[in-house]
Write a structure and sequence with these properties.
Shape: globular
Structural class: mainly alpha
Radius of gyration: 18 Å
Largest sheet: none
Strand content: under 5%
Number of strands: 0
Length: about 200
């Protein structure tokens, strides 16, 4: 696979990954409300889902995955329900300063990972993205080594995109020094998460 092909794929995927959408909004919201670890955990689940769909598309199984409509729908709705439920809890939560939260309990990171995974496995646009992109950019057939190279490119791009969102949201979170500011941030983050869940449900 030549450098021009890799750069073309990287550029196309960067546009796809950095575009505003439920995933990026959720990463920001979780980082604001529960800290960088929560945002990174959601991002990790998201990346696992993206890589799984890449493997399916590269091996010609994406069409099969598309036929598993019921399972994909369940995954999407389960992930969306989790976002909406978490957003409502965040909206109604008592404000806790980040310094006070440091020694307290935190939401399980596993739940964030599973939410990111479920939403991306259940995303109906993901297989279509790969089916449209791979033949036009890298050819119809991919050897395992080429799939590994593309996976490395995806990891690098997502590290940049997810890391950037977490970094910016983390800086904003550290600026929250009063309970009133935390309450406003919680309600913004909760509203964003509810909106992201609704957007996932509305996606076709």
């Amino acid at each position: 696979m030549d450098p021009v092909t890799l750069l073309s794929f990287a550029a196309a995927f960067l546009v796809f990954a950095a575009s505003p959408g439920p995933d990026n909004m959720t990463i920001v919201a979780r980082t604001l409300s529960h800290g960088p670890a929560s945002g990174l955990a959601y991002g990790a689940g998201m990346v696992v889902g993206i890589l799984a769909v890449l493997v399916l598309a590269a091996t010609g199984l994406a069409v099969v995955a598309q036929e598993m409509g019921a399972l994909m729908t369940v995954l999407r709705y389960a992930g969306a329900a989790y976002l909406i439920w978490t957003g409502i809890r965040l909206w109604t939560a008592e404000p806790v300063l980040p310094a006070e939260r440091a020694g307290g309990t935190r939401p399980g990171l596993a739940a964030s990972v599973l939410a990111g995974l479920a939403l991306n496995l259940g995303n109906p646009k993901m297989p279509l993205f790969y089916l449209a992109l791979l033949p036009n950019v890298v050819g119809a057939a991919l050897a395992p080594a080429q799939v590994a190279i593309l996976a490395a490119v995806i990891l690098a791009v997502e590290a940049l995109v997810i890391g950037g969102h977490v970094l910016l949201a983390g800086r904003l979170r550290r600026a929250l020094r009063t309970r009133a500011a935390v309450r406003r941030a919680n309600r913004v983050a909760g509203g964003v998460m509810v909106g992201a869940g609704v957007a996932v449900v509305a996606a076709r």
